[in-house]
Amino acid sequence: MINKVSQLKSKLGSNELTLGTWITIPHQAVVEILSSAGFEWMVLDLEHAAIDYQAMMNLIGHIQGIGMEALVRVSKNEEVVIKRAMDAGANGVIVPMVKNATEAKEAVGYVKYPPHGKRGVGLSRAQQYGIGFESYKKWLEESSIVIVQVEHIESVNNLEAILQVEGVDGIIVGPYDLSASMGMPGDFDKSEVVSALNQVIETTQKMNKSLGFHVISSDHQILLKKVLEGYKFLAFSLDFFFLGDMARSEMQKLKSLLK
Prior knowledge:
The protein is α/β, with parallel strands linked by helices. The chain has helices at 7-13, 28-35, 53-65, 79-87, 101-111, 133-143, 153-157, 159-163, 175-181, 191-206, 220-229, 239-258; strands at 18-23, 41-45, 69-73, 92-95, 145-150, 170-173, 210-215, 233-238. The protein has one domain (7-258): TIM Barrel.
């Protein structure tokens, strides 16, 4: 249930390696199939995927029912969007495009109830439809998770202040948008982009906060490289790449033998 102790929160706090994946296809079968791989958590992508509120709540229930934790990458840093994800029972949120400490404080405030936040009180799945409100309040303070995305050069320049915000459990780098904000979308080998990513690593490690990255590739060697670079909160690929990459690879091998 939503009110149990969060293992992910504990790992983020102690900078332990933790591995999850990204869900964009809103179907319980995808969650159930990927759960067999051994992920600890899954992220439902509401920013770029066609996942609506009803699907989000159902998928959160499936993820948690299988024994994993469910995070929601919300569409933006906005009160109602974050509040609805948390009321649906999410273990926490990943908030895109957080550029400074003020925006980080807003994100935390939208997750937490007063006096530590400003989230409005509603009764839904998270609060067991009213009968679990008191236990949810305690869980919210102790186990809810707020991850901010560092995906703009302003975020990099303000990272130390962002990481000092109480309630921020860690960061996750958005490499495509970060490079785009520098006028070099997808050019990860450019010296300026490499320098910005290195700055993120150095600052986050100096602040002893959990450093995250979404490795888009389904190649485990790419993820292993990020582990060796010091990343601890790692999202490994996403549903349609795991599906598509295997299908394309095996069909290519088959066609080569049929020539």
